[in-house]
Amino acid sequence: MLKFPKNFHIGASMSAMQTEGKGITEIGDLTFDAYFKENPELFYHGVGPDLTSDITRHYKDDIEKFKYIGLDSVRTGFSWARLFPDGINLNKEAVKFYHDYIDEYLKNDIEIIMTLFHFDMPLWAHELGGWESREVIEKFISYCEFVFKEYGSKINYFVTFNEPLVPVFEGYVGKMHYPAKDSPKEAVAQAYGIFLAHAKAVKLFKELKIDSKIGVVYNWNFTFPFSDSAEDKISAEIYDAYVNRGPLNIMYNGNINPIIIKTLEEYNITPFHTSEEIEIIKQTEIDFLGVNYYFPCRVKTNENVKNRWALDQMHIEIPADAKINPFRGWEIYPEGLYDISIAIKKELNNIPWYIAENGMGVENEDRFRNENGQIDDDYRIEFLETHMSELKRGLDAGSNCFGYHIWAAIDCWSFRNAYKNRYGLIEVDLKDQSRKFKKSAYWYKELIENKE
Ligand code: BG6
């Protein structure tokens, strides 16, 4: 079995919205509540964001289970709409809930990493214009200030955004997130607002001299050209600038790739910005990085071009001989974790980093249930083992990686996919909220016990 060093964190991640649902305190409406109200048929099996693992009621038992597995760290998050349901007034019950919840992790010696924004946009903020609105950004910063001051002494790692651009790509040029538009120009303006909000949150954190660390969790689904052709290489470079390294670098140290500036100008979609804002972005300096990795992006040049923005000229294609997760349709490429380890070492000054999400989503896991009622998820064990081996290789090559978190600790509701793809080490029966360890939980426990 794989051996990781004693001080290497092995844990799991989740998010507030995907585990809390409406929960035990008041919470303001989210964009996903509106989306579900308008189009329930778009959600897998008609399951909306209210039906989750209901962790605000079950957290003591759940944390006991995390402890049993041996997770030494867990990432979840605060819900902005729970702490400030209308964006203005503080919800005191929510403040107390997060104290109790965090304390329970600490009592169990589990390091708790907290995200401030994980796709859970309050509806009022969306109605003001979302991240394009400077008023929304200021309200977000006030929420961050409250959280840093209130919980700063208990939390060692704060994450500003999880997969910052996913809601932008999925909401403004895709149809998975609200408002399900198709407007590259708006997507770019939203993305810029997120970079600014992140930079301002990091700046505030440093000004407040909070004695912990701040970073971002970026989904770095490593870029490769699909072929050796000159076209695919150029497309891959542009794709990387827009989707992978480009935004990651902006959030790492405010470095804006000239390819982004040039191509936005070419398509006349440069977002509104001021020189003061650009200065704030350029001063960004995070303390650590979280990386979510699920699959590689092999970029192929399009023949039929829509030509609204640079990304219209390319798409992601999976090679015919690649290994695929048949349940989710994503390519399985564990070597990507080694590539990321080396890239961080070389390109990001070997910043302390960890794998914040990596895992395997599977449909209808019921079919893998054994006679004792346990899900025998050998496919997940294989996925974990191959990916973690590649990460270990990166670690041995000197990459400054301090941990690995599987997505997810427990089966989570997911955006429009609801419970289609289950990822948890712990199964949730939505009929009665009972929990059961999957086989992978025992494998993970052994792996953790095997640290030396
Ligand atoms: C990650 C997100 O991108 O993927 C999670 O950070 C999400 O929030 C996970 O649940 C899995 O997504 P899906 O759509 O396969 O359930």
From TrEMBL:
<dbReference type="GO" id="GO:0008422">
    <property type="term" value="F:beta-glucosidase activity"/>
</dbReference>
<dbReference type="Pfam" id="PF00232">
    <property type="entry name" value="Glyco_hydro_1"/>
</dbReference>
<comment type="similarity">
    <text>Belongs to the glycosyl hydrolase 1 family.</text>
</comment>
<dbReference type="InterPro" id="IPR001360">
    <property type="entry name" value="Glyco_hydro_1"/>
</dbReference>
<keyword id="KW-0378">Hydrolase</keyword>
<dbReference type="InterPro" id="IPR017853">
    <property type="entry name" value="GH"/>
</dbReference>
<dbReference type="GO" id="GO:0005829">
    <property type="term" value="C:cytosol"/>
</dbReference>
<protein>
    <submittedName>
        <fullName>Beta-glucosidase</fullName>
    </submittedName>
</protein>
<dbReference type="GO" id="GO:0016052">
    <property type="term" value="P:carbohydrate catabolic process"/>
</dbReference>
<keyword id="KW-0326">Glycosidase</keyword>
